[in-house]
Amino acid sequence: MAALVAGLVLTGCGNRDAAQRQNLERFTAEEIYKRGEFELENSRRPADAVIYFSEIERLYPYSEWARRALIMQAYGHHKAGNYEEARGAAQRFLDNFPGDDEAAYAQYLLALSYYDQIDDVGRDQGLTFQALQGLRRVIEDYPDSEYARSSILKFDLAFDHLAAKEMEIGRYYLRQGHYAASVNRFRVVVEEFQTTTQTPEALLRLVEAYLALGLLNEAQTAGAILGHNFQSSPFYQDAFRQLRGRGLRAEAQGDSWLTALYRQTIQGQWL
C-alpha cells in the first residue's frame, strides 16, 4: 500500500503537467480512486483529491469507477469550497446517470453548492432562490432518500432568509419615513412568507406604518391578526401598546387586503 501511495503522489501546486498525468496511466482506476479517497480523508487540501477522481473520468470514462469518481469530484469540490466546480460535477452526474442510486446525493450536493453560500441577509438573493429550487428538487424527486429531511430543514431556513431580506428593506423604508414603500415589503412577508419567523414582526411594522399613514382600520386589523396568531409574542405587546395609545383596539376593521386575510386565515371565509 505504501508503494502504491508513493507511486500515485502528485507533487507541486497549481497545474499538473503532462508527465504527472502520464504517471497515473500506470495505475488501474480502482487504485487511483483509492488514492483519491485517501487524500479526502487525510489531506487538508481536498482539491488535491479531486485531481485523482477527474483523472479516472479521463482515463477510464466508461468504467464503473468513473461513475463513482464523478460524484466524488462533486463532493471534493464542495468540501474545498469550489462551489461552481461542485455544481458542474454534480450536474454532469445527473445528466449521465439520472436513474442512479447516487442521483439523490448529486442533487443534494447541487443544492448545497448554493445553500452554503447564503451567509448574509444583505447580499443579493439569487443564490437563495437557486438553493430553494435545488432543495425542492431533492424533496419532490427523492422524498424517500436520506437527504430529503435535511433538505426540508434547509429549505425552511432559506425561505426564512428571503423573508428576512424583505424585512430588512421594509425596516429601512420605515426608518426613512417612506411608509407606503415599507408597507409593500411587509405585505410580501405576511402574504408570501407567512410560515416564517419573520411574520410577527412584519405585522407589528404594518401597525406602525399604517398608524403613521393615518390608516387606522388597517393598523387595527394588522394588530388583530398579530394578536390572534402571536398573542404571546413581544411584537404583539408592542403593537397593543401603540394601538391603545391612539385609543384603538386590535380588531378587524374596514375592507382591505388585511381584512380579506383576516377572514380567510382566522374566520375561514375563502369566498
UniProtKB/TrEMBL annotation:
It is found in: Cell outer membrane. Part of the outer membrane protein assembly complex, which is involved in assembly and insertion of beta-barrel proteins into the outer membrane. One of its GO terms (cellular component) is cell outer membrane. The keyword Coiled coil does not apply. Belongs to the BamD family. GO terms for biological process: Gram-negative-bacterium-type cell outer membrane assembly; protein insertion into membrane. Keywords: Cell outer membrane, Membrane, Signal. This is Outer membrane protein assembly factor BamD. Coiled coil: none annotated. Residues 28-222 form the Outer membrane lipoprotein BamD-like domain. Part of the Bam complex. Gene3D superfamilies: Tetratricopeptide repeat domain. It holds the Pfam family YfiO.
